Amino acid sequence: TQSPGGMSEEEDQETSSLLPKRCIDFLNKWRYCTSAYYQFHQYYIFGRFKNCNQIKTNFKNCVKWRTFRSEAARRDLVEALKRERCEDMTVDGMDGVEPVAVWEVRTEAPADWNDPVEETLDGSVGHNATRFS
Q1: Residue 32: which residues within 8 A CB-CB, separation 6 or more?
Q2: Which CA distances in Å does 65 have to 59, 68, 113?
Q3: For the whole model, what pTM was predicted?
């Protein structure tokens, strides 16, 4: 059987599970996304700020759908949420950008990890440094 929107009951159930109970959730998500804390965290991790426009569009579509029962707004919202779900399954959820490796992962400790620490000529401490006499 078909729902009024032209979808089967199975498709309608799947899309209903994607839709939030309240549109205010999108607004809260957008406010958090545009916060200085979140944006600087994104810049620190990925080297750029995150574009939060889609979240704002989702909020607007949710309001249109809940208020005016706009099927076009519902369809756009469902498609955006499906895309977002797929992006969440990627490495970082930011347009397919892979995070830059800061260090190499080691499988074992370096051979000199427990050698005595020696004082260097400039007074700093380091492994296997030239001994200060």
Answers
A1: 38
A2: 10, 6, 62
A3: 0.60
Walk along the chain (133 residues) and give the pLDDT tens digit of each residue: 445 555 566 666 667 777 878 999 999 999 999 999 999 999 988 888 999 999 999 999 999 999 999 999 999 999 999 988 877 655 554 555 555 556 677 788 888 888 887 766 666 655 554 444 4
Q: Residue 129 contacts by C-beta under 8 Å, 6 or more apart in sequence?
A: 118, 119, 120, 121
Q: What one-character-per-residue DSSP string does 21-67 give?
A: S-THHHHHHHHHHTSHHHHHHHHHHHSSPPP-HHHHHHHHHHHHHHH
**Separation CA 117–CA 1 (nearest Å):** 76
User: What's the longest Cα–Cα distance across the chain?
Assistant: 89
Which residue from 80, 69, 84 is spatially nearest to 5, judged by alpha carbons? 69
